[in-house]
Write a sequence for this structure.
């Protein structure tokens, strides 16, 4: 009889384990372990490919999740198997008390990797406190090495401040420092070689990103897109590149290096060679919506559940629901496709 009871209890525990502790594995057998958290829909720049010229509708601050709410979601996410978190935005460094939030996240048990994507404008003052709070690596967006062109693409940004930020990140001990470059035909594709050369002298990872059609008015047209193969061909006109064998957890970038180079060169190819079959990520918008694919408008509303009194279990169930709905792949390479409604600045790239 005791044995019988023991077996029943064991079975109950196993069922509990399957339902509630199971890691996030979706219908296509992808293990989801990466969450991008957008902390704000605001930005101190207005990059032409990210937001329309008139700006975007900004949400009231009461609509934006507090750090405590974000932490609650992040905690539940780690219970579900999320081990990597990237803080993004809008521009994460303009949200008040961001250092405090980094500190909160960095103490989460179960988190093995914490990073941030920033435009770098405020990084010179924030790099050291960020590092001290637990942020050990950073991606900085920089689409031109020419002051005037940088100002144009960001609609007003100051290139010098970004360089100061990049320097400060290195000095604070952040590593690797990754530089994200969105490549746009006949706008900055003539700088591919100059960007690539940076990896000769410095230990940076220069990541060339294919221009993506996110948001109905982000200016994307097929003619403005440069494939990573074309980029590679242009860069190899100066020096041959060798592929870098990378660890599985290094994300979708295809990595290369110059033989004598201190850094690396990466290509992010969402269009030319989509990486949907290995996509391991979810995105949480600043207003509390969980998105399973950058290019899809499907969202799961965590904020209403959280503010309606939902606890750990309800949030876990929503993560399961999200995973169940994660699409197999995006359709942006189809000849006709619908661009998603939100602009990148309000999703979190
Ligand atoms: N403000 C921060 C920054 O610029 O790094 C973080 C947010 S931004 C939306 C995140 C990343 O998305 C940046 O590297 C940016 O270049 C990239 N991005 C935005 N719109 C894009 C687009 N249409 N195609 C490709 N990358 C894009
Ligand atoms: Fe702001 Fe980053 Fe978008 Fe540029 S890419 S407008 S810096 S959120």
């Amino acid at each position: 009889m005791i044995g019988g009871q023991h077996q029943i209890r064991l079975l109950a525990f196993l069922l509990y384990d399957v339902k509630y502790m199971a890691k996030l594995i979706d219908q296509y057998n992808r293990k989801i372990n990466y969450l991008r958290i957008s902390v704000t829909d605001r930005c101190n720049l207005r990059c032409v490919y990210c937001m329309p010229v008139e700006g975007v509708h900004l949400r009231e601050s009461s609509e934006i999740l507090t750090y405590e709410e974000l932490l609650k979601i992040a905690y539940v996410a780690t219970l579900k198997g999320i081990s990597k978190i990237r803080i993004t935005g809008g521009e994460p460094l303009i949200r008040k008390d961001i250092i405090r939030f980094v500190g909160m996240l960095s103490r989460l048990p179960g988190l093995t990797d914490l990073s941030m994507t920033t435009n770098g404008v405020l990084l010179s003052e924030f790099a050291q406190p960020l590092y001290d709070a637990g942020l050990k690596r950073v991606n900085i967006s920089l689409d031109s090495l020419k002051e005037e062109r940088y100002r144009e693409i960001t609609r007003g940004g100051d290139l010098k401040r970004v360089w100061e930020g990049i320097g400060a990140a290195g000095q604070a001990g952040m590593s690797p420092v990754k530089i994200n470059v969105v490549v746009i035909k006949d706008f900055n594709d003539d700088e591919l070689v100059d960007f690539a050369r940076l990896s000769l002298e410095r230990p940076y990872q220069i990541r060339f990103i294919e221009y993506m059609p996110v948001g109905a008015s982000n200016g994307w047209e097929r003619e403005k897109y440069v494939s990573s193969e074309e980029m590679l061909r242009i860069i190899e006109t100066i020096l041959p590149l060798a592929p870098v064998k990378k660890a599985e957890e290094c994300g979708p970038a295809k990595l290369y290096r110059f033989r004598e180079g201190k850094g690396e060169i990466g290509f992010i190819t969402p269009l030319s060679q989509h990486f949907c079959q290995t996509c391991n990520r979810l995105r949480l918008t600043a207003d509390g919506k969980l998105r399973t694919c950058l290019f899809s408008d499907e969202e799961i509303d965590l904020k209403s559940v959280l503010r309606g009194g939902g606890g750990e279990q309800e949030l876990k169930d929503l993560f399961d629901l999200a995973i169940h709905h994660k699409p197999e792949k995006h359709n942006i390479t189809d000849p006709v496709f619908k661009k998603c409604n939100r602009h990148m600045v309000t999703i979190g790239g």
Q: What stands out?
A: Residues 23-347 form a domain with the TIM Barrel fold (CATH 3.20.20.70). The chain has one domain: 23-347.
